[in-house]
Structures are given as C-alpha cells and as structure tokens.
Amino acid sequence: MIDEARRLAPRFAARAAATDRDGSFPVDDFADLRDAGLFGLMVPARLGGAGAGFADYAEVAYELARGNGATALVFNMHASVTGALGGISDTLADALGLPPEAMAARDEHLKAAAAGSWYAVAMSERGVGSRLSKLTTSYQRVDDGYRITGSKTFCSGAGHADAYLVAARSASDPTQVSQFLVPAGDGMRVEETWDALGMRATGSHDLHIDVTVPESALLGGLEGLALVAVQLAPHWMVASYAAVYVGVARAAVDAAVAHVNERGLGHLPAVRARIGRADAAVSAAHLAVREAARRVDEAPGEVETNRWVWRAKLLAGTTAAEVAASMLEAAGTSAMRRGHPLERLYRDARAGSLQPATSDVCADWLGTDALGGDPDSDGVAPRW
Ligand SMILES: Cc1cc2nc3c(=O)[nH]c(=O)nc-3n(C[C@H](O)[C@H](O)[C@H](O)COP(=O)(O)OP(=O)(O)OC[C@H]3O[C@@H](n4cnc5c(N)ncnc54)[C@H](O)[C@@H]3O)c2cc1C
C-alpha cells in the first residue's frame, strides 16, 4: 500500500494545480485511491482489507500528501473512521459492553470500505469547532432508530463521500455525545461554502442533516461513546493529520529544489542554507511522526505514547508552515505566481497548525504535562 501511495503521488501532483485553482474535489485522485484498494487500508484482513496499523497509515498519508495535501487530508478522514472502527478489539468490546449486533454492524461498515466505499467526518460546527462537548446537532430515539438534526461545517469531501460519521448530542440527555455512520443521500444536504485560503480541493463544505437512521448506524451500539473514543484513540483525533502536513512540507522542499536548480540559484549561500535547514526540520518532524506512530501500534494509550502523539501534531503543523514560507522566500517572487507549486503548498501548509488540536492547544497540553498537571483536564477550556 505504501508503494501504491508512492505510485499515485505524481499523478495527484499533476492534477493538484487545477483542483486548487477551481476549489473542486479531486474526483480522479479518489478514483485512483479506490482502484488501488486504499479505502481498505485500515480494514482488518479478515474483512477484506489490508489490515494496516497506524505506522503504515502514517507512511501512506505522507506519500499521498507529497502528491496533493488536499487529497491526503480527505483520505485521512476516511482512514480515521475505518482505523478507529477496526481498532476495536474483542477484548475492548467486552470491556465496554458493546452489543454483538453493533460489532456485526461495524464489520459491515468495514467490509463496505474494503469493497470501495469511503467515509467523511461531519463533526465540526460553526462557532463550536470540533469541541464534542459543545455540539448542537442533536438526535432522539424514534421507533425504528434515531432522528438526527443539525448543521455541520468544514466537512471534507462533502457531496462525494458514501457515508458520513456524524457526531451528535442526545436531545433527552445532553451529556451523551454519540457517533453515527449516516449514508449519503436524502436528508444530507450539502451547502457549498468552502472557498478557503488553503486545502482548497478538500471540498470542506457545510452539511445540513435531517435524517432518520436505523439502530445499526449508532457506532458501538451504545450512546455516549464519542468522548470515550477520543480518550481511547487520541491518535486519530490529534495526530492523524501530522503525517499529511509533513508530506506537504517535504513537497515544499522538493518544489524549492526543482525551482532553484532550474533557475540556477543553488550557488547562493542563503538559498542553500534555507534548503538545508528545511530538509533538517522536515526530517525531524517526520521522525517525530514515525515515533508517535510506532508507539501507537506498540503501546497504545500509554502516557508516553500520548505525549508523542501531541508532540507529533505540534511539530508537523508548525514545521509545515515555517518550511513552506522559507521555501517560497528561497525561490523568489516568480514562485508566488498562481499555478506555481510553492504558491499552493505555502497556502496548504498554513492549515496544519489550525487543524485541531491546534499548535497552540498542543503546546498547552505538553506544557501542562511537563509542569506536572493533568493535560487532559487542566486546560483553560475543555480539550474536546
Ligand atoms: C482543511 C481543513 C479540513 C477540515 N476537515 C474537517 C472534516 O472533514 N470534518 C470536521 O469535522 N472538521 C474538519 N475541519 C475542521 C477542524 O477539524 C476544526 O473543527 C476547525 O478547524 C475548528 O474551527 P474553529 O474556527 O472553531 O477554531 P478552533 O479550533 O475552535 O480554534 C479557535 C481558537 O481557539 C483556540 N482553541 C481551541 N480549542 C482550545 C482549547 N481547548 N483550549 C485553548 N484554546 C483553544 C485555538 O488554538 C484557536 O486559536 C477541517 C479544517 C480544515 C482547516
């Protein structure tokens, strides 16, 4: 799968300028991902997938992002849904008391992914961001399942995904935040609002929801699992973007090297030093992402693993923005023209620190921890 991602990256890179310019969804990239079987990356082998771990995912995301960060970011949403679902072991299911019907439904969602379906994440809301504890989208029990109503924003891949992971709050018990997998179609209306500075091809539009779903759509089969899922698998919520932004940063270095060689600027010491510093910074951030990913696979949930997860997100986000800015400066004004790869990469890289957990929130988490506090509960505001 990593080789497949490497094979696809140049194809994505060739299409990236057009989808960025138009703010259109990279439909052809997604057809390539489907054909390569990548929608089954995180699906266990017994259900027809590749059975990848988090470290494998991180390598795939890095390679895809070297081609097109926007494509890799949308793919990350699908990988997060399938990775979190596939990560529920029988032992964990027993410990949480998940009903067998919910595990059967989970297997069906994963089999569908291995067969070529892909899932988007509809969590964020206007004025709330991704803070699960503040969501206003609500659900209530009805005879044949659940009725969900509300509006989401920043939903990458809206209008193209086969189903959406929707986070919503119980109308009867607002302390319960649950997650549903809702098929695209009636009751899921996309409003095309995404016209952003960077990651323009992610199609992160608003989604208006008024839908009734069967009981099997409630992930885990129990209400109130959304915050539990963040605690059990913080790597998907916090650090899965990290590999994407390190890939974007590496693409910026590659684009600068190509530009500098083409323009014959390599003899300038300041240009050479910028490229040298950028290479070191991207390599260091990549190592941090790999270390976090290795620990997630080997020692999930351990205190030191979680520290690396937050470090990786912080380093990837800040490194991408700093490196892309420096590479633009090394390349000069001609790289600022629309259509030049560095112009797009500079804007795409800017989004890394802003995606939750934002760089400021990551730094606060790590600082609170270093000072002996409880980083999950001692923030100035709830983390989620
Ligand atoms: C390219 C892109 C694609 C995205 N795709 C998706 C998607 O597919 N699905 C989805 O659901 N969302 C998606 N998002 C949205 C994203 O996950 C966040 O929900 C969103 O960026 C939060 O926006 P916000 O404007 O409310 O800012 P916030 O994240 O709320 O940040 C506002 C400010 O508050 C600070 N802050 C936030 N939380 C805390 C805290 N706990 N303590 C202290 N300070 C805090 C931040 O550092 C920042 O300075 C995407 C975002 C981007 C940029």
UniProtKB/TrEMBL annotation:
* Acyl-CoA dehydrogenase/oxidase N-terminal domain: residues covered: 3-82
Segments forming domain Acyl-CoA dehydrogenase C-terminal: 241-352
**Presence of keyword Cell membrane:** no
Q: Per the record, GO CC terms?
A: cytoplasm
* EC number per UniProt: 1.14.14.21
Q: Which domain of life is it from?
A: Bacteria
Q: Which reaction does it catalyse?
A: dibenzothiophene + 2 FMNH2 + 2 O2 = dibenzothiophene 5,5-dioxide + 2 FMN + 2 H2O + 2 H(+); dibenzothiophene 5-oxide + FMNH2 + O2 = dibenzothiophene 5,5-dioxide + FMN + H2O + H(+); dibenzothiophene + FMNH2 + O2 = dibenzothiophene 5-oxide + FMN + H2O + H(+)
Spell out the subcellular localization from the entry.
Cytoplasm
- InterPro entries according to UniProt: Acyl-CoA_DH_C (IPR013107), Acyl-CoA_Oxase/DH_mid-dom (IPR006091), Acyl-CoA_Oxase/DH_mid-dom_sf (IPR046373), AcylCo_DH-like_C (IPR036250), AcylCoA_DH/ox_N (IPR013786), AcylCoA_DH/ox_N_sf (IPR037069), AcylCoA_DH/oxidase_NM_dom_sf (IPR009100)
> Which key words are in the record?
Flavoprotein, FMN, Monooxygenase, Nucleotide-binding, Oxidoreductase
Is Flavoprotein included in the keywords of this UniProt record? yes
Ranges where the Acyl-CoA oxidase/dehydrogenase middle domain occurs = 120-210
Pathway field of the UniProt record reads: Sulfur metabolism; dibenzothiophene degradation
Molecular function per GO: acyl-CoA dehydrogenase activity; flavin adenine dinucleotide binding; monooxygenase activity
UniProt similarity note: Belongs to the DszC flavin monooxygenase family.
The protein's name is Dibenzothiophene monooxygenase
- Gene from which the chain derives: agqB
